């Protein structure tokens, strides 16, 4: 059977076909859709699929299941591995009786923002094998292979995709009607394996992990066809990940017959396989996105066996370390490598002209987004307290809240990592900055990594204003639920955790709850909080408007009274609401503001119109 | 053989749905398919685009100057696709302008029609211009701009309409099937009566 699947959908299918029973993870582009695809099927498949509070806990859940002999997988984006790393390092040394796959999605070209982290180095650091899929079919096949390798060696295996493979779709062959027998959970007490209480335990486990790597390599070389090789001319390319697809396209387009070695398992390296490939060629080009991970290994192998061969790649600047590789970049690298022009020269003049005419579209908050009200009120509070905007540092965080850095709000100054807004703000304060410092973060981010830094601020009594923009969802990655999410009772799989209770329990004395749709209240609360010389927390609570809209929450909509509108455009300039439009007409030279049917009804614009021209639409019923 | 389709527009216009339908059409006629969609901040009014490759291809992204067909749902967004457009290819251009918020009070900064058309003409494309928003208003289904364009596309490059309608029905909510079929037929009719320049 064939179906159109993205890389993430293919992994979800691979998980089902493998008969995995525990799936955990934390949302993060470009990895999120694996769990999104499995969630609706979980009940029928009788497997555990859910979002967990952060990547570290998610990893521990999968590993715990593998300790009990089960098949488990944990999913995350590259930054998530940093969060999970502490536990992973220990688990990879212990190993288990079941099997566990760690799916990590790297993002060269930053489709979603964040650092261009090359997670392949984690394979080396954690002493874990890593499979790197080049296309959607491999995403499915490698998921199954990763489980097999993990079971065989008794330790965790990384499965890595990059955003282009994870998000693009192609026709994928899959199996139907899978039914797998489930084992009874069993965990054997063995402190020498599952604890680090003695030096001898630790060193033995270290050796075991190294042995597992070797076993993984042997398994791949003898049983699984994960690496691919083709022998042609004496110019050879070593490639892995998504660039393999564009390389094949170039080979077909320009009728090339170069030799190539495509690595599917990129750690541990197969010295023998690489040596025998190098034996048959007289120059080599390494194509891999991000860091020269494979290239450095190839140079090491060449050094060890003393062959004289020209190596091209990143270290000689044939290809860059930054960004993802387009067809054009691979074509140019091949031209440099083969010392000939490929295809006819096309003039790029027209592209330049088109680029000069392009309209830039700055992203703002969605229609009805509660964060618009919070940042607008924050800016006004700063003004009313007679501070200059450039005096008040706003330490932002990961997620939708950071759209507050964009015009017209220009609020947030910095964005580091999940929950880091609160920790970074403390450092800035301790550096001696006297004016109030604000940290803004979303509810999901607070649950993920914001609690420990909040306790630290209370513990050391570091004055801060922390605003939790509580829209009830982990929204930016695609509306996943988190412990604070509203009303999931329908499927009875979760219990809501109240944010207010946590903040109180952290020892915060000055806590405010406000609705960002109520402008005057929010402004008052923020002024209070900024004036307080201690830790104050403002919960700005209102559900994400896109989610509320899906749940058919309906609020009165607004319209512009043309007789009162003076065309000053204050509303559009200060709020940048996508539901607003402005146009000039023959009858009205000063121009006319309009609120379109996209209006959600947050009512913020009504508060700022100097002539009171924005009015609620009278209910027709 | 291969056909590369480049779809470009703004979040909320249904551009991704349109590309998805073409990708599934490719599957339905038994071809190899690659489908890439830009998933950025499109929901917040940003640019959105889809790439569908049907036939003997490897990469999921269309190489420069290779797209056989380009569908532009928003006038100026078309500019972002020019570097992928094959000289002599087919361009279906929706005559719909959406101003970004910071340009709303200065619409004169929006690129001029003739500048964009001129660039397309220099690529010697077969250009067909459609006012899909007006037609969508006419049939009282404002969200159908994308499906009207699908009808136009089907007629212009002779897709198998029976297969395409089957796929269309699978990809729109049940209660909107009738309206979408009307929009599709409207697109086909317009294409039949249009001049390709």
Describe the strand arrangement of the main beta sheet of chain A, using strand numbers.
3-2-4-5-7-6-12
Shape of chain A: globular
Distinct helical segment count of chain A: 23
Roughly how much helix do the residues of chain A carry, as a percent range?
25-40%
Rg of chain A computed from alpha carbons, rounded to a whole number of angstroms? 28 Å
Which CATH first-tier class of chain B would you pick?
A: Alpha Beta
In what order do the strands lie side by side in the largest sheet of chain B?
2-3-1-4-5-6
User: In this structure, how is the largest beta sheet of chain A organized?
Assistant: 7 strands, mixed
Describe this structure in words.
The complex is a heterodimer of chains A (621) and B (197). Chain A is an alpha/beta fold. Chain A folds into 4 domains: 2-177 and 193-222, 3-Layer(aba) Sandwich (Rossmann fold), CATH 3.40.50.970; 228-338, Rossmann fold; 370-550, Thiamin diphosphate (ThDP)-binding fold, Pyr/PP domains (Rossmann fold, 3-Layer(aba) Sandwich); 558-616, Alpha-Beta Plaits. Helix content of chain A is 39%, strand content 17%. Chain A has 23 helices and 23 strands. The longest helix of chain A has 24 residues, at 199-222. Chain A is globular and about 80 Å long. The model of chain A has no long low-confidence stretch (mean pLDDT 94). Chain B is an alpha/beta fold and 197 residues long. Chain B has a single domain (2-192), classed as Pyruvate-ferredoxin Oxidoreductase, domain 3, CATH 3.40.920.10. Chain B contains 6 helices and 6 strands. The mean pLDDT of chain B is 92. Chain B has a 6-stranded mixed β-sheet. Chain B is 35% helix and 22% strand. At the A-B interface, β1, α8, β8, α11 and α14 of A face α1, β2 and α2 of B. β8 of chain A pairs antiparallel with β2 of chain B, so a sheet runs across the interface.
